[in-house]
Structures are given as C-alpha cells and as structure tokens.
Specification:
This protein is about 25% helix and about 35% strand. It has about 140 residues and is α+β, with helices and mostly antiparallel strands.
Length: about 140
C-alpha cells in the first residue's frame, strides 16, 4: 500500500521532533503543499521562536507514483539552506516494509546535513547592505 503524501510528511515531522526536539528558544516550523493530481508534495523546514522570525533550513520534495508492475514508489529530494544541489532517494515497496521507518530514515538523512561534496552557497544575511552598481564604481 502506498502512503498518503501528507501522512509521510507527518512521519517525517515526528521523526525530526524526536531526533532534534524543539527548545524554548527555537522550534520546528513547517509548511506543506501538495498536488494530489500530480502526486507531488513539498515540505519546507525552518527553525525559529514561536510567532517570531524563522530561519529556513531546507526542503524535502516527495513524488509518489506507481511502477510498471503497479507497485508504489516514492522519490524524495532533499535540499538544505545554503547548499547548492539535491540528494535524491527512491523508496520502493517491498514485503514487510514500513513506510513510517522509511520516513524516519529520510528525516535522519536530512538532519545529518548535506554530503561533504556538495557546494556551499554564500548566504547573505538580510541585514547586509545592498550596494548599487553606481556606488560600487564610485568607491573603486
């Protein structure tokens, strides 16, 4: 049986909270979007104080589909804030497989961070001043 995409995200969120619990200073803030017609779902993950400004941490995209033999499959694409690139994992239905434990594995891999070979993007804070091309030329 193929899991529902939102149920899979609930399992991921529970795993994140269990592996890295919220604190009084910061808690997990998530945003989900689902297109049931296309079998696509997006989970945006951020940390921040309740009701305050959050810091984006990354995204998990999931696509649900059936293989030629009619068995269900999920493809998960993991991204991290400040990292260029994506890690993709496919989850194939097998006898005695637990979709919940597969969601836990995806959450653990995402919490583990980007693989060492991925490029780190320069992250500019919002407090940094924007310099116009004319001002940059004048100061040169």
């Amino acid at each position: 049986m193929q899991p529902r995409l939102l149920s899979f995200f609930c399992d991921i969120e529970r795993s994140l909270e269990a592996d890295q619990p919220s604190s009084p200073e910061a808690s997990w803030q998530t945003s989900r979007s689902v297109n049931y017609f296309q079998g696509l779902a997006r989970l945006e993950l951020a940390m921040g104080p309740s009701g305050g400004k959050t810091e984006p941490k990354g995204t998990i995209l999931v696509q649900g589909y059936q293989l030629a033999d009619e068995s269900p499959c999920l493809k998960a694409a993991l991204t991290w804030a400040g990292v260029e690139g994506t890690v993709t994992r496919s989850i194939f239905s097998k006898p005695d497989m637990s979709w919940t434990s597969e969601a836990r594995k995806i959450a653990a891999e995402w919490l583990g961070g980007a693989p060492a070979g991925m490029d780190q993007r320069a992250v500019v804070s919002e407090s940094a001043e924007m310099i116009s091309p004319a001002a940059a030329a004048a100061s040169a």
